[in-house]
């Protein structure tokens, strides 16, 4: 009928990077955009994955690092051990032949083993700061400007990540050099002991395939995974009333990030990487 014809478009961002954008249903997208525009900023919220969604997949021809793999523990033996886990589990994460339920179990295994190695190695916040300073990590072009615009318009941004909250906070500090009133992070949050060493993680582990189970957290005032970073606390209950969503992700599991919301209109953007 042509009604549901996918549309491909070459888009140039900031005059430098060129992206191929595929729109599954252009008519529907136009309708959603109009509905969101009509309802205005008071009805909108943005929910975004972090690694390779807000951050660049490629940086000057090198693979950008994730919040996990930028981390250098004091004892390098632990970095080797975590890398071995990555080499084994990462291909499974993106293996289309593994059914999702089986894959979710494998992801739990991976996350638990990695978290255990971080604790066993006695990670310090100092190591996090040094690791971020040396990391190959950068926000995509336009992310800072987008956050600024959304802050100006009073639109909340939820960064929903299966990575590490403390590292994401440090990346924001070091790479953006400012905090945003409207940005909150829901991710695996560390607890340090009195000697400043990692002791445990707060709450239930968030991995790439169980974000849907944590989607309600965004509206829970004092949930384990959320630090009331920038005084967005007052607005938490109203997040559920923001029924228009711009969802940004790079993983099938990211679609579950808005499951806690009874949304009216959702525009989902998926970032896909091909070649180098
Ligand atoms: P995301 O939710 O922000 O995309 O973060 C999850 C990514 O972290 C996922 O793609 C796998 C990656 N990861 C590592 O690189 N090393 C690890 O040890 C673990 C557990 C995950």
Which hetero compounds are present in the coordinates? Answer: thymidine-5'-phosphate
Give the strand line-up of the largest sheet: 7-6-3-10-11
Measured as a percent range, the helix fraction is: 25-40%
Main sheet overview: 5 strands, parallel
Can you describe what's shown?
This protein is of the alpha/beta class. 34% of the residues lie in helices and 20% in strands. It contains eight helices and eleven strands. It has a five-stranded parallel β-sheet with strand order 7-6-3-10-11. The protein has a two-stranded antiparallel sheet with strand order 1-2. Strand 4 and strand 5 form a beta hairpin. The chain is globular. The chain starts with 6 loop residues before the first strand and ends in a 6-residue tail after the last strand. Thymidine-5'-phosphate (TMP) binds next to helix 2, helix 3 and strand 6.
């Amino acid at each position: 009928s042509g009604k549901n014809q996918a549309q491909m478009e070459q888009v140039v961002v900031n005059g430098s990077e060129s992206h191929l954008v595929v729109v599954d249903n252009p008519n529907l997208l136009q309708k959603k955009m109009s509905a969101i525009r009509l309802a205005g900023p008071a009805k909108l919220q943005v929910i975004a994955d972090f690694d390779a969604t807000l951050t660049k997949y490629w940086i000057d021809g090198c693979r950008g690092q994730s919040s996990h793999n930028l981390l250098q523990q004091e004892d390098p033996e632990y970095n080797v051990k975590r890398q071995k886990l990555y080499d084994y589990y990462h291909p499974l994460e993106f293996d289309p032949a593994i059914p999702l339920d089986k894959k979710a179990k494998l992801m739990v295994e991976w996350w638990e083993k990695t978290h255990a190695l971080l604790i066993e190695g006695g990670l310090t916040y100092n190591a996090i700061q040094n690791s971020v300073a040396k990391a190959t990590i950068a926000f995509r072009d336009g992310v800072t400007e987008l956050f600024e615009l959304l802050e100006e318009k009073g639109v909340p941004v939820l960064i929903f990540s299966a990575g590490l909250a403390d590292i994401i906070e440090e990346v924001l500090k070091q790479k953006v050099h400012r905090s945003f009133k409207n940005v909150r992070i829901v991710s695996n949050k560390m607890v340090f002991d009195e000697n400043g060493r990692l002791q445990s993680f707060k709450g239930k582990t968030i991995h790439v395939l169980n974000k849907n189970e944590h989607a309600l957290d965004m509206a829970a005032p004092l949930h384990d995974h959320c630090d009331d970073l920038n005084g967005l606390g007052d607005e938490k209950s109203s997040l559920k009333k923001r029924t228009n969503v711009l969802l940004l992700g790079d993983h099938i599991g990211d679609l579950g990030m808005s499951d806690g919301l009874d949304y009216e209109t959702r525009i989902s953007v998926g970032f896909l990487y091909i070649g180098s």
